[in-house]
Amino acid sequence: MPSAKGLHCWTFHCVFGLLAVTGMRSGEALRLKRDDVDLDAGVLTVHASEFG
Question: What's the predicted TM-score (pTM) here?
Fold first, then answer.
């Protein structure tokens, strides 16, 4: 899937890695926003998960 800026392969690489190491569902990963990540605290907040 080539793109004009060449980011598609790295985007998929990161998303599949995130799914693999967290056990997150694809819908949860796709709903993530920048505010859901706190790099200083090392926390990723998942909203609207299957069990709330």
Answer: 0.65
